[in-house]
Amino acid sequence: MASLWRPASWSSKRPVTVTKNEILYSLNKPVDFILALVLFGSGDHDTPRVCYVRRPFQREPDFGAASVNYALKDLLASAEDPAVGRAAGSTGRA
After folding, report:
1. What is the C-alpha radius of gyration for the chain, rounded to an integer number of angstroms?
2. Neighbouring C-beta atoms of residue 30, cutoff 10 Å
3. Burial profile 12-24: b = 16 or more Cβ within 10 angstroms, e = fewer
4. Residue 80 half-sphere exposure toward CB, CA atoms < 13 A
5. How far apart are CA 62 and CA 24, in angstroms?
6. Alpha-carbon distance 77 to 60, whole Å?
7. Half-sphere exposure of 26 (CA within 13 A, CB side)
8. Taking Cα atoms as reference points, which of 74, 59, 65, 61 lies closest to residue 8?
9. What is the DSSP letter of 24?
10. pTM
11. Distance CA 45, CA 58 (A)
């Protein structure tokens, strides 16, 4: 299983840059690709926060694009906590 680690600051205003090759790989092998986001400086503690995003990309980049910027907050909206296997923002309660 391929995993792409992207360190990011906690600020949701900073983009996450992903290369065209990484996006194409994720679209060609969606089951094998997990985008791992490592967030530093999340405010509550100094320990980095890790989030997994499965199937993060919906379409191929434009032909001439070398990379694409994504909003961190949009990626985090579909992220999972790898330790518990559920949505990162979810409490797990019904």
Report:
1. 14
2. 13
3. eeeebebebebbe
4. 12
5. 11
6. 20
7. 21
8. 74
9. H
10. 0.70
11. 33
Do you know the residue count of the chain? Answer: 94
User: What does the block give as tokens for 15?
Assistant: 């983009």
Q: At which residue do the structure tokens 């961190």 appear?
A: 72
Q: What CA–CA distance (Å, rounded) separates 76 from 38?
A: 11
Model confidence pLDDT, tens digit, residues 7-61: 555 556 778 899 999 999 999 999 999 999 888 765 666 678 888 999 999 999 9
Tokens of 77: 């909206």
Q: What is the Cα 15 distance to its own chain's centre?
A: 11
> Reduced to 3 states, what is the DSSP secondary structure of residue 14?
coil
| Gap between the Cα atoms of 88 and 81, Å rounded | 5
